[in-house]
Amino acid sequence: MTDYLMSTYNPIPVSLTRGEGVWVWDENGKKYLDAYAGIAVTNLGHSHPQVMAALEVGIHQVLHTSNIMTISAQKQLAHRFCTMAHMDRAFFCNSGAEANETAIKLARLYGHQKNISKPTIVAMQNSFHGRTLATLSASGNTKIHKGFEPLVDGFTYIPYNDIPALQRCAQSNPNIVAVMLEPVQGEGGIRVIEDGYLEKIRALCDENGWLMILDEVQTGIGRTGALFAYQHTSILPDIVASAKGLGNGIPIGACLARGIAANLFQVGNHGSTFGGNPLCCSVANAVLSTLEDGKIYTNVLQMGAYLLEMLKKELGNIPGVVEVRGRGLMIGLELDRPCRPMLQLAADEGLLISVTSEKVIRLVPPLILQKEHADLIVTTLAKTIPMFLRQSQP
Ligand code: PLP
Prior knowledge:
With 394 residues, the protein is α/β, with parallel strands linked by helices. The chain folds into two domains: 16-34 and 295-391, Aspartate Aminotransferase, domain 1, CATH 3.90.1150.10; 50-291, 3-Layer(aba) Sandwich (Aspartate Aminotransferase, domain 2). The protein is built from twelve helices and 17 strands. A hairpin with a 5-residue loop joins β8 and β9 (191-192). The longest helix has 21 residues, at 295-315. The model has no long low-confidence stretch (mean pLDDT 97). The chain binds pyridoxal-5'-phosphate (PLP). Pyridoxal-5'-phosphate (PLP) is lined by residues 95-97, 100, 128-130, 182, 186-187, 215, 217-218, 243. Pyridoxal-5'-phosphate is lined by residues 95-97, 100, 128-130, 182, 186-187, 215, 217-218, 243.
C-alpha cells in the first residue's frame, strides 16, 4: 500500500488503542506494560481520572477563543505553574520545540537590550532542543543539523559537564548572552549531569550577566522526582522550557521566566494561535494539581532508585551492556551496539520501551509505576537483552 505519511519516523507495527494506568492494549487486544509513556509524556499514566475529568468538562466549554480574549484557565495555569516552579511569568505554546524557541527569542531580546547585536547562546554538545530551525541549530548534534543548513546563527557548543570550557567562553566571546542545557540529556542517551554542575553554571551566569536557560521538556513534570530537575538544587534558572508531561498527552508547552527575563516580551513580540487554549490549559491545571502534594515525586525517587538498582544487578555485568544510568524514572541502558530491534523484541514480550542515541534503551515509564511493574521491566529486559546480544554484532 502507498504510504501517505512522510518518512519522519519508522514505527514498529504495534497500534495502541486503549490505556489505563501503566498498561496499554493494541488493536488486537494484546496487553503491554508501558515503559516509555509516549516518550516521557503520559507521566500520570493513561486515562488518569483527574485528566479525563478536566477533558470532559473542557470539551463541553468553548474550545478556542485565541489569545485576543482573556482565557481564565490560562491565567490560573500560569499562576499555579509559576508558583510551583518559583518563576515569575509564563508563555504557553504547543510543544517543546516552541517552548525552546521562546527561550531563544528571550535570550536574543536580552542581548539586544545590552547592545549586543549578535547575541550568542552557549549550548551543549550532544544536546537536543527540537526540530524547528532555531532549536535544531541549538542542538549540539551534527546528525540533526545535516541537510538543513544554513543553520540559525548565534550558537556555540561546549562539552556537557565541562566548566573550564564555559569559563573559556566567558574570556573569549563578548557576544554570549545565555547558557542553555538539559539537566539530563534525554535524546542524547540519558546523560546525567554531575552533582554541583548546575550551581557552577548559575554562578558563571551571574558573574557574566548571562541568562541561564534550562530545557526541562523531558526532565520536567516530576520525571526526576521533583517538578523540575533544578529543584533538587538550591539554584533557579532564569528561563525554563517545559512540554511533554505538562498535558499528559494533550499538546501543550510552556516557557517560564524569572526576573529580567520575565519582562522582556512586549505586546506583538511573540504569540501563538493555539498556545494556551482553554482545553489544554484546563488539562495542564489538572496535571499540576495532582503533583501538588508531592506524593508522586516520592514514588519516582523510590521506584527510580529500585529500578536502577535492579537493572544494574541483573544486567550491569553482562558483556554488551556498557552502562546503566539515570535519574528518577529516566533510565538508560547503553549497549555496545545499535539496538533498535529491541523495540520489537520487548514488545513481543509485552513491554514497550524506546531507544535513543542508537545504542541506548530508554526507560521513561509513567511516574505511578509500582514495584511489581519495575520487576516486570527487569525480568523482561533480562530475557530480551541477552537474546538480542546473541543475535547481533557490536
Ligand atoms: N527538548 C527536549 C529536551 C526534548 O527531549 C524534546 C523532545 O524530545 C524537545 C525539546 C522537543 O519537544 P517537541 O517534540 O515537543 O517539540
